[in-house]
Amino acid sequence: MTPNTPTPLSRFRQRLAVLYFGQTSSAVRFQLTLAVIDLAIIAFFLFGPYLRNRPSYLVIDYLIAVWIAAELAAQLLAAPRLKRWLLRPMTWIDVLILLTLLFPTTFFSFAFLRATRLWAIAQRPIFRVMLKRLGQSHLADIIAALINFVVFLFTVTGFVYTFFFFGENGLAGFVDAAYFTVATVTTTGFGDITLPGTAGKLTSIVTMIIGISLFVRLAQAIFRPYKVSFACPECGLQRHDADAVHCKACGHILNIPDEGD
Protein backbone atom coordinates (compact mmCIF):
# COMPACT_ATOMS: atom_id res chain seq x y z
CA MET A 1 0.00 0.00 0.00
CA THR A 2 1.50 3.35 -1.11
CA PRO A 3 1.53 6.36 1.28
CA ASN A 4 -1.24 8.10 -0.72
CA THR A 5 -3.55 5.08 -0.77
CA PRO A 6 -6.54 5.70 1.49
CA THR A 7 -6.92 3.22 4.31
CA PRO A 8 -10.20 1.34 4.87
CA LEU A 9 -10.88 3.56 7.89
CA SER A 10 -10.38 6.77 5.91
CA ARG A 11 -12.65 5.50 3.13
CA PHE A 12 -15.27 4.60 5.72
CA ARG A 13 -15.02 8.08 7.26
CA GLN A 14 -15.39 9.71 3.85
CA ARG A 15 -18.45 7.59 3.13
CA LEU A 16 -20.00 8.58 6.44
CA ALA A 17 -19.28 12.26 5.77
CA VAL A 18 -21.04 12.03 2.39
CA LEU A 19 -24.05 10.33 3.96
CA TYR A 20 -24.32 12.79 6.85
CA PHE A 21 -23.59 16.04 5.01
CA GLY A 22 -24.07 15.32 1.29
CA GLN A 23 -27.03 15.91 -1.02
CA THR A 24 -26.82 12.81 -3.20
CA SER A 25 -29.81 10.48 -3.49
CA SER A 26 -28.26 7.95 -1.11
CA ALA A 27 -27.41 10.74 1.38
CA VAL A 28 -30.97 12.09 1.25
CA ARG A 29 -32.41 8.60 1.86
CA PHE A 30 -29.96 8.06 4.73
CA GLN A 31 -30.79 11.41 6.36
CA LEU A 32 -34.53 10.81 5.92
CA THR A 33 -34.16 7.45 7.67
CA LEU A 34 -32.36 9.13 10.55
CA ALA A 35 -35.10 11.77 10.80
CA VAL A 36 -37.82 9.08 10.96
CA ILE A 37 -35.88 7.26 13.69
CA ASP A 38 -35.50 10.56 15.57
CA LEU A 39 -39.29 11.06 15.48
CA ALA A 40 -39.84 7.53 16.78
CA ILE A 41 -37.38 8.13 19.64
CA ILE A 42 -39.09 11.42 20.53
CA ALA A 43 -42.48 9.68 20.56
CA PHE A 44 -41.08 7.05 22.94
CA PHE A 45 -39.70 9.75 25.23
CA LEU A 46 -43.05 11.58 25.29
CA PHE A 47 -45.09 8.46 26.05
CA GLY A 48 -42.42 6.84 28.21
CA PRO A 49 -44.09 7.69 31.56
CA TYR A 50 -47.15 5.68 30.50
CA LEU A 51 -45.10 2.67 29.38
CA ARG A 52 -42.78 2.21 32.37
CA ASN A 53 -44.74 -0.72 33.81
CA ARG A 54 -44.54 -2.75 30.63
CA PRO A 55 -41.78 -5.38 30.34
CA SER A 56 -40.78 -4.09 26.89
CA TYR A 57 -39.98 -0.62 28.23
CA LEU A 58 -36.44 -1.39 29.37
CA VAL A 59 -35.72 -3.28 26.15
CA ILE A 60 -36.68 -0.28 24.02
CA ASP A 61 -34.88 2.03 26.43
CA TYR A 62 -31.56 0.19 26.01
CA LEU A 63 -32.04 -0.21 22.25
CA ILE A 64 -32.36 3.58 21.98
CA ALA A 65 -29.23 3.91 24.13
CA VAL A 66 -27.32 1.63 21.73
CA TRP A 67 -28.62 3.64 18.75
CA ILE A 68 -27.61 7.02 20.23
CA ALA A 69 -24.18 5.66 21.17
CA ALA A 70 -23.70 4.30 17.62
CA GLU A 71 -24.76 7.60 16.08
CA LEU A 72 -22.41 9.56 18.33
CA ALA A 73 -19.56 7.31 17.16
CA ALA A 74 -20.60 7.70 13.51
CA GLN A 75 -20.84 11.49 13.82
CA LEU A 76 -17.38 11.57 15.40
CA LEU A 77 -15.95 9.60 12.48
CA ALA A 78 -17.76 11.77 9.93
CA ALA A 79 -16.75 15.08 11.52
CA PRO A 80 -13.95 16.85 9.63
CA ARG A 81 -12.40 18.02 12.91
CA LEU A 82 -12.68 16.70 16.47
CA LYS A 83 -12.99 20.23 17.87
CA ARG A 84 -15.99 20.95 15.66
CA TRP A 85 -17.72 17.77 16.86
CA LEU A 86 -17.00 18.57 20.50
CA LEU A 87 -18.36 22.11 20.16
CA ARG A 88 -21.72 20.94 18.81
CA PRO A 89 -24.38 21.44 21.55
CA MET A 90 -26.24 18.37 20.24
CA THR A 91 -23.19 16.21 20.94
CA TRP A 92 -23.31 16.93 24.67
CA ILE A 93 -27.09 16.76 24.79
CA ASP A 94 -26.92 13.27 23.24
CA VAL A 95 -24.27 12.27 25.79
CA LEU A 96 -26.55 13.37 28.65
CA ILE A 97 -29.54 11.61 27.08
CA LEU A 98 -27.43 8.47 26.70
CA LEU A 99 -26.54 8.62 30.41
CA THR A 100 -30.21 8.99 31.37
CA LEU A 101 -30.98 5.87 29.33
CA LEU A 102 -28.11 3.77 30.70
CA PHE A 103 -28.31 4.98 34.29
CA PRO A 104 -31.92 6.17 34.79
CA THR A 105 -31.69 6.23 38.59
CA THR A 106 -28.44 8.20 38.81
CA PHE A 107 -29.25 10.71 36.05
CA PHE A 108 -32.99 10.95 36.62
CA SER A 109 -32.71 14.73 37.14
CA PHE A 110 -31.56 15.18 33.54
CA ALA A 111 -34.35 13.16 31.94
CA PHE A 112 -36.15 16.36 30.92
CA LEU A 113 -33.38 16.96 28.36
CA ARG A 114 -34.72 14.11 26.22
CA ALA A 115 -37.18 16.57 24.62
CA THR A 116 -34.23 18.36 23.03
CA ARG A 117 -33.86 15.47 20.58
CA LEU A 118 -36.23 17.53 18.43
CA TRP A 119 -33.22 19.71 17.67
CA ALA A 120 -31.54 16.74 15.99
CA ILE A 121 -34.13 16.89 13.20
CA ALA A 122 -33.75 20.63 12.62
CA GLN A 123 -29.95 20.34 12.50
CA ARG A 124 -29.82 17.61 9.86
CA PRO A 125 -28.96 18.87 6.35
CA ILE A 126 -32.03 17.06 4.98
CA PHE A 127 -34.20 19.65 6.73
CA ARG A 128 -33.12 22.49 4.43
CA VAL A 129 -32.46 20.25 1.41
CA MET A 130 -36.06 19.01 1.32
CA LEU A 131 -37.46 22.52 1.76
CA LYS A 132 -35.27 23.72 -1.11
CA ARG A 133 -36.39 20.86 -3.37
CA LEU A 134 -40.01 21.70 -2.54
CA GLY A 135 -39.38 25.37 -3.34
CA GLN A 136 -40.15 26.34 0.28
CA SER A 137 -36.75 27.54 1.48
CA HIS A 138 -38.38 30.63 2.95
CA LEU A 139 -40.01 28.38 5.58
CA ALA A 140 -36.67 27.15 6.97
CA ASP A 141 -36.24 29.96 9.50
CA ILE A 142 -39.91 29.78 10.55
CA ILE A 143 -39.79 26.01 11.14
CA ALA A 144 -36.45 26.27 12.96
CA ALA A 145 -37.85 29.01 15.24
CA LEU A 146 -40.99 26.95 15.86
CA ILE A 147 -38.93 23.87 16.75
CA ASN A 148 -36.80 25.94 19.15
CA PHE A 149 -39.95 27.25 20.84
CA VAL A 150 -41.56 23.81 21.11
CA VAL A 151 -38.34 22.25 22.42
CA PHE A 152 -38.11 24.99 25.04
CA LEU A 153 -41.71 24.38 26.17
CA PHE A 154 -41.20 20.62 26.48
CA THR A 155 -37.81 21.01 28.18
CA VAL A 156 -39.10 23.49 30.78
CA THR A 157 -42.22 21.36 31.32
CA GLY A 158 -40.02 18.33 31.94
CA PHE A 159 -37.77 20.30 34.30
CA VAL A 160 -40.69 21.70 36.28
CA TYR A 161 -42.35 18.28 36.45
CA THR A 162 -39.11 16.59 37.59
CA PHE A 163 -38.30 19.03 40.36
CA PHE A 164 -41.69 20.35 41.49
CA PHE A 165 -44.59 18.08 40.48
CA PHE A 166 -43.16 14.58 40.29
CA GLY A 167 -44.92 13.57 43.52
CA GLU A 168 -48.38 13.97 41.99
CA ASN A 169 -50.12 10.84 40.76
CA GLY A 170 -50.84 9.98 37.15
CA LEU A 171 -51.12 12.64 34.47
CA ALA A 172 -52.00 15.45 36.88
CA GLY A 173 -48.40 16.38 37.67
CA PHE A 174 -47.34 16.64 34.04
CA VAL A 175 -50.44 18.67 33.14
CA ASP A 176 -49.77 21.06 36.03
CA ALA A 177 -46.16 21.47 34.88
CA ALA A 178 -47.26 22.14 31.27
CA TYR A 179 -49.96 24.55 32.46
CA PHE A 180 -47.48 26.49 34.60
CA THR A 181 -44.95 26.64 31.73
CA VAL A 182 -47.42 27.99 29.16
CA ALA A 183 -48.91 30.49 31.63
CA THR A 184 -45.41 31.73 32.52
CA VAL A 185 -44.07 31.93 28.95
CA THR A 186 -47.13 33.87 27.79
CA THR A 187 -46.89 36.07 30.94
CA THR A 188 -50.56 35.33 31.61
CA GLY A 189 -49.71 34.61 35.23
CA PHE A 190 -53.02 33.29 36.56
CA GLY A 191 -51.31 32.58 39.88
CA ASP A 192 -53.31 29.43 40.64
CA ILE A 193 -50.16 27.30 40.18
CA THR A 194 -46.84 28.69 41.41
CA LEU A 195 -43.47 27.15 42.19
CA PRO A 196 -42.42 27.28 45.85
CA GLY A 197 -39.28 28.82 47.26
CA THR A 198 -36.37 30.73 45.78
CA ALA A 199 -35.67 27.98 43.23
CA GLY A 200 -39.27 28.26 41.99
CA LYS A 201 -38.99 32.03 41.57
CA LEU A 202 -35.69 31.74 39.70
CA THR A 203 -37.20 29.05 37.44
CA SER A 204 -40.13 31.38 36.68
CA ILE A 205 -37.81 34.29 35.89
CA VAL A 206 -35.62 32.27 33.50
CA THR A 207 -38.68 30.74 31.83
CA MET A 208 -40.23 34.16 31.19
CA ILE A 209 -37.04 35.77 29.85
CA ILE A 210 -36.04 32.95 27.51
CA GLY A 211 -39.63 32.07 26.56
CA ILE A 212 -40.52 35.63 25.54
CA SER A 213 -37.27 35.89 23.55
CA LEU A 214 -38.04 32.70 21.63
CA PHE A 215 -41.64 33.78 21.06
CA VAL A 216 -40.47 37.14 19.65
CA ARG A 217 -37.95 35.29 17.46
CA LEU A 218 -40.75 33.09 16.12
CA ALA A 219 -42.96 36.12 15.42
CA GLN A 220 -40.09 37.83 13.58
CA ALA A 221 -39.47 34.73 11.46
CA ILE A 222 -43.17 34.63 10.49
CA PHE A 223 -43.79 38.28 9.75
CA ARG A 224 -40.48 39.72 8.57
CA PRO A 225 -39.69 39.82 4.82
CA TYR A 226 -38.10 36.66 3.47
CA LYS A 227 -34.31 36.85 3.25
CA VAL A 228 -31.74 34.45 1.89
CA SER A 229 -28.35 33.46 3.28
CA PHE A 230 -25.69 34.77 0.87
CA ALA A 231 -22.43 36.31 2.07
CA CYS A 232 -21.56 39.63 0.43
CA PRO A 233 -18.05 39.18 -1.05
CA GLU A 234 -17.19 42.77 -0.11
CA CYS A 235 -18.42 43.29 3.48
CA GLY A 236 -19.56 39.79 4.46
CA LEU A 237 -23.21 40.65 5.26
CA GLN A 238 -24.99 37.28 5.42
CA ARG A 239 -28.70 38.09 4.98
CA HIS A 240 -30.22 39.77 1.90
CA ASP A 241 -33.62 40.15 0.29
CA ALA A 242 -34.27 37.30 -2.14
CA ASP A 243 -34.33 39.70 -5.12
CA ALA A 244 -31.50 41.97 -3.93
CA VAL A 245 -29.12 43.26 -6.61
CA HIS A 246 -26.91 45.36 -4.35
CA CYS A 247 -25.74 44.77 -0.79
CA LYS A 248 -27.67 47.18 1.42
CA ALA A 249 -24.63 47.56 3.70
CA CYS A 250 -21.89 48.42 1.20
CA GLY A 251 -23.63 48.62 -2.21
CA HIS A 252 -21.59 45.80 -3.75
CA ILE A 253 -23.28 44.08 -6.72
CA LEU A 254 -24.63 40.67 -5.69
CA ASN A 255 -25.22 37.55 -7.73
CA ILE A 256 -27.61 35.55 -5.56
CA PRO A 257 -28.41 32.12 -7.09
CA ASP A 258 -32.03 31.23 -7.79
CA GLU A 259 -33.73 28.45 -5.80
CA GLY A 260 -33.25 26.00 -8.63
CA ASP A 261 -29.54 26.65 -9.05
Automatic annotation (TrEMBL):
Where is the signal peptide, in residue numbers?
none
Transmembrane spans = 28-47, 59-78, 90-113, 139-164, 202-223
Task: Please name the Gene3D superfamilies in this protein's record.
Answer: 1.10.287.70
Mind telling me which Pfam families this protein's record contains? Answer: Ion_trans_2
Read off the SUPFAM superfamilies from this record.
Voltage-gated potassium channels (SSF81324)
Q: What is the lineage of its organism?
A: Bacteria, Pseudomonadati, Pseudomonadota, Alphaproteobacteria, Hyphomicrobiales
Q: What topology in the membrane does the UniProt record assign? A: Multi-pass membrane protein
Q: Which residues form the Potassium channel domain?
A: 151-223
**What is the species listed in this Swiss-Prot or TrEMBL entry?**
Rhizobium halophytocola
Compartment(s) of residence: Membrane
Which GO terms of type biological process are on file? monoatomic ion transmembrane transport
| Keywords annotated in UniProt | Ion channel, Ion transport, Membrane, Transmembrane, Transmembrane helix, Transport
InterPro entries given in the database record:
K_chnl_dom, VG_K_chnl
Q: What is this protein called?
A: Voltage-gated potassium channel
